[in-house]
Design brief:
This protein is α/β, with parallel strands linked by helices. The protein contains 13 helices and 8 strands.
Length: 377
């Protein structure tokens, strides 16, 4: 369920810091000040209205709510007031609500804001990291990702047990065939367990579409607006269209393989700072108590999926995940089922991907299965 917390874009207001999520634009660029696309002043929905919507959803027994905002931290003054209100509301509930949203890596620069997100019970957030390739970030004008060490920013956020769902793209003009192995290594080193991988698209009406059209690189006039579609609608600059699509498919398969996922999960657990996770407040204790109940139900489902119905490889993978979390402490166990739910979903997606060619025929430098099957231990 979604509670509309505010407009999709934010701008400076009432002394708040303008940190809006950018709009995909020129050359796939994220133009933060593109007035050609944004013609209206952004309004702020009053916090009491937001709480009223959330109260109505809670009465309908909705315990997981997505705050639909492209960048929730666009105005930090406003969002801190909102988060404090969400914390106060959760304190009145027997079962606190879990919130989800989208924001930028800039959240890592504000320790107070991170603590508020943790206390308000945000177990996951979506962040558009896009790429570890600095040239591609310059190309897309996503400057705020260039102003910090991305892996350090990820560690800072996930140290509180807040899982990052990372948006990642391949196919920028600065990308060559090495981008696939680069993305694979980056995901492991950063401990990003639940990436949302996509090929670059050029939707009609964007400057990217206009530029590629002028350059004669568009392949289908109507664009390609389906997120789950692996195909691209233009000719990439440093590889062929088939190389982009086929290497992307192999990267997706590798990322949601058992060895690769486990490597990333181990690094996620290493990032968790128990001092930042264990906050001694009545709400924090209530959240942890409710999570233990969720863990019991989720564990029953996981045992059936991975142990009862699974083969030896599935069982080994599952117990390795559990051991990894419990070595840090029982408080980290919820990270097992939070990440595995998405792993199962994405694994079903992977099973439906076309097998367009064998890896050795891709013609690129990327080779899947960087981690041998014996690396589960």
């Amino acid at each position: 369920m979604r509670a509309i917390a505010d407009e999709a874009e934010r701008r400076h207001d009432d002394g708040g810091e303008d940190d809006r999520q950018s709009v995909l634009d020129e050359d796939g660029q994220y133009a933060a000040n593109d007035e050609e696309r944004i013609h209206v002043d952004v309004r702020y929905k009053p916090i009491e209205h937001i709480l009223k919507e959330i109260q109505n959803l809670e009465r309908a027994n909705r315990k997981r709510i997505f705050l639909a905002d492209d960048n929730l931290i666009g105005n930090k003054v406003f969002v801190k007031k909102l988060l404090n209100a969400l914390i106060d509301f959760n304190k009145t509930l027997k079962q606190p609500i879990s919130y989800y949203t989208q924001l930028t890596l800039n959240v890592a620069r504000d320790e107070e804001l991170l603590d508020l997100l943790k206390e308000a019970n945000f177990p996951m957030v979506f962040i558009g990291i896009e790429t570890p390739n600095k040239e591609s970030l310059i190309e897309t004008n996503k400057k705020h990702n260039l102003l910090m060490d991305i892996k350090e920013a990820v560690r800072c956020i996930q140290s509180r047990g807040i899982i990052i769902i990372s948006g990642l793209i391949v196919g920028f003009d600065s990308d060559d065939l090495d981008i696939f192995s680069t993305q694979s290594r980056f995901l492991v080193e950063a401990g990003l367990t639940v990436p949302m991988l996509a090929t670059l698209k050029a939707p009609r009406g964007t400057k990217l579409w206009d530029r590629l059209n002028r350059e004669g690189r568009l392949i289908q006039e109507d664009g390609c607006d389906t997120f789950g579609d692996y195909s691209c609608n233009f000719r990439p600059k440093n590889m062929t269209k088939s190389q982009l699509e086929e290497n992307y498919l192999e990267l997706f398969r590798e990322v949601y393989s058992f060895p690769h996922f486990l490597k990333r999960f181990k690094n996620l657990i290493d990032q968790v700072d128990l001092d930042k996770v264990k906050k001694n407040s009545p709400l924090a204790w209530n959240v942890r108590f409710r999570r233990k109940k969720d863990c019991i139900l989720a564990t029953v489902f996981m045992i059936r999926h991975f142990v009862v119905d699974g083969d030896r490889e599935k069982r080994t993978f599952f117990f390795s995940m559990v051991r990894t979390a419990l070595r840090k402490g029982l408080i980290c166990f919820h990270l097992v089922y939070e990440t595995l739910i998405i792993f199962i979903s994405q694994s079903h997606f992977v099973s439906g991907l076309p097998n367009k060619s064998a890896p050795h025929t891709l013609g690129g430098s990327y080779r899947p299965r960087v981690f041998p099957s014996g690396s589960l231990k």
